[in-house]
Structure formats: C-alpha cells, structure tokens
UniProtKB/TrEMBL annotation:
This is Cobalamin (Vitamin B12) biosynthesis CbiM protein. GO terms for biological process: transition metal ion transport. It is found in: Cell membrane. Keywords: Cell membrane, Membrane, Transmembrane, Transmembrane helix, Transport. One of its GO terms (cellular component) is plasma membrane. Residues 225-342 form the PDGLE domain. Pfam families: CbiM, PDGLE.
Length: 348
C-alpha cells in the first residue's frame, strides 16, 4: 500500500508531510518520557524484521493480486504506539529513500496510512479492548486479526480519500473504493494471522513485553535476549532468502489501479513531481530492491530478459538478497539510534 507520488497532489503531499512531522515530534516526546530502556533494542530489531517481512508479498487466491504485512499493529503491541510510530516511520523512510518503494512526496501519506492509523487507532481502540488486561492466545488471535483488518481498511480508505482530495480523476472515488476495500480485507486477514503468531510466540517466551505486571511495570530483569535473537535471525533469513519467494502479482493498491486504468501505476509530469522523481532516482541505490540496471544498449534483448525473469519463481536473485540484508541493517541502526538518542536526550 505504498503510494507513489503520481497518486497525490503537492498540496496533499505537503499537508501530510507536515501532519506526520507533528506526529513524529509528539511520539518522540512520549518516548522520552515513557519508554522502557529495555525496549530500545527491540525498536531496532523489530524495525529490521518488519522491513524484511514487507519484502514478501503473498498471493491473494483467485484475484491475481498480492499483499504484504504493514506491521504497524505488531509494532504497537510490542513497543507501544509512540515507539511503534517512530519505528514504522523509519522503515517507510528507508524504503522510500534507498529502495524507491513509495514516493518521496507521498512519504507523509504513507506514514499516516501505515503508521498513524494502526498505531494510534487500530491498536488502542480495537486490539486493547479485545485483549484486555488478561491476554490469552485466543484473545491475542482475535485482537490481532480485528486490529489488522481495521487498520488496513482505514488505511485503504485513507488512500482513496487522498487521491480524491488530490483531484486524481483517473481514479473515480466509487470504483476505486470498491476495489481497494475488499482486496485489503483479504490482506488484513492474513496480516492478522501472521501478527497473532508472532505475538503468541513472544507472549509465551517473554510475556512481560506484552503484559507488564503491577509489581513489575517495566521489563527490568526480564530476559528478552531470546526474543531479540529469534527476530533478528528471522529478519536475516527473510530479507536474505525468503524474499525470493515473494509473489510477482501486483499488490492491492497496484491491482486496484490496474482494475480501473489497465496499468498498475499512474504518471505525473508536472515540475514538482519531476523534482521528487529525479531526487529519488539519485538517492535510491537499490531501486525496487535490486541493483540498478545498466543502460540498455539492445532494448529488444533486455525486454526479453525481463520477461523471462518475471516468469521465474522463486526469483533467486543476489540483488534481492543484498537489498533485503542492507535494508534490514539500515532500518535496525536507524530505529535503534532514534530510541537511544531520545533516551540520552531525556537524561540531560
């Protein structure tokens, strides 16, 4: 559900940039005041895990579409909404800057849709009431699925509204919403199950992460070493190898656009969009999670090679593995140092 720049106007993009900058400032202050020091390493390793997991698109049967987890609800359950918002913002920023996944002008929209909504709406108003103060595996399953579905439904609808307010006439409101909502319902159900499995494992291994007690409100001496090692290992395996098995079908947003226009992406040719496109092309050193393609000297043969590559599954590719590992590492470092920096600033 990463929006490209062509889906929004500069006014909408700038407004959401300002809104998410304000939200990030608010979240940073809350983390400074409330964050348990023991959870700072979790910010880094969970950021890496979600980054790698987002590289695996799973097929939605019978649709020709695919989806990947957003990860906002998962992060909010484990880190709390404020640290989770900063972590998902880190992930989306790394993806946009270095991998050209989601537009730079649309970065504020993407952080709002995949960060604010799951962290500040789905988690507190859906997950927490359903799971309550006495979690169980059944309640975690119910809460995770309901929150993931609600988060994606609201996020998908927010995408439609942002294109509507941007005046994107190529995506009529009614047609677009009738394609976006059902496909993201299916994606949300799968994300909810994945979230529940991860949360269930952590609840079993280190329940203090999810349920601090009245006598021990912080993690304190509780060992989260095993959880960190497992999540880090999964991030490496997923980014370095499992990413080859991602579905080649368009994701829910691309599928919906193609259902209206016949193409998975729209084009924008004005000066502002051109500036951001040129800037992103210069910064992104692993665009589309792969090595930059060399200039084509024989277009016909290159076209044939690309067609053959698209038909291959799993797509065993060194560039994909490098992108998964490098992106996970950058995200880990960025999220960790954001948490650490805020902690140091709070002590001064």
């Amino acid at each position: 559900m990463h929006m490209a720049d062509a889906l929004i106007s500069p006014v909408v993009g700038g407004t959401l940039w300002a809104a998410t900058a304000g939200l990030a400032s608010y979240a940073a202050k809350k983390v400074q005041n409330d964050m348990d020091e023991q959870k700072i390493p979790l910010m880094g390793v969970l950021g890496a895990f979600v980054f790698a997991s987002q590289m695996i698109n799973f097929t939605i049967p019978g649709t020709g579409s695919s989806g990947h987890i957003g990860g906002g609800v998962l992060l909010a359950i484990l880190l709390g909404p404020h640290a989770a918002f900063l972590t998902i913002a880190s992930i989306l920023t790394v993806q946009a800057l270095f991998f050209a996944d989601g537009g730079l002008l649309a970065l504020g929209c993407n952080i709002f849709n995949m960060g604010f909504i799951p962290c500040y709406i789905a988690y507190p108003f859906i997950y927490k009431p359903l799971v309550g103060t006495t979690p169980s595996q059944k309640r975690i399953m119910l809460g995770s699925i309901a929150a993931a579905v609600a988060g994606l439904q609201l996020g998908a609808f927010s995408v439609v509204l942002q294109t509507l307010f941007s005046g994107i006439s190529a995506l009529p409101f009614t047609t677009f919403v009738l394609l976006m909502q059902p496909i993201h319902l299916a994606i949300g159900l799968i994300e909810g199950i994945i979230t529940a499995v991860v949360i269930g494992f952590i609840y079993q291994e280190a329940p203090q992460i999810i349920q601090p007690t009245a006598l021990n409100p912080s993690l304190g001496a509780a060992s989260i070493k095993k959880v960190i090692i497992v999540l880090f290992t999964l991030a490496i395996i997923t980014g370095g190898g499992l990413s080859w098995f991602a579905s080649s079908n368009p994701d829910g947003l691309e599928w919906s656009i193609a259902g209206i226009n016949g193409e998975e992406e729209l084009q924008a040719s004005d000066e502002v969009h051109g500036y951001f496109a040129e800037l992103q092309e210069k910064i992104a050193f692993l665009p589309d999670y792969n090595f930059k393609a060399a200039p084509a000297s024989h277009p016909a043969s290159v076209e044939g090679t690309e067609a053959a590559t698209e038909a291959t599954w799993p797509a065993v590719d060194t560039g994909t593995s490098v992108a998964g590992l490098v992106g996970s590492f950058i995200t880990l470092i960025l999220a960790y140092f954001i948490g650490k920096g805020l902690q140091v600033a709070a002590k001064r």
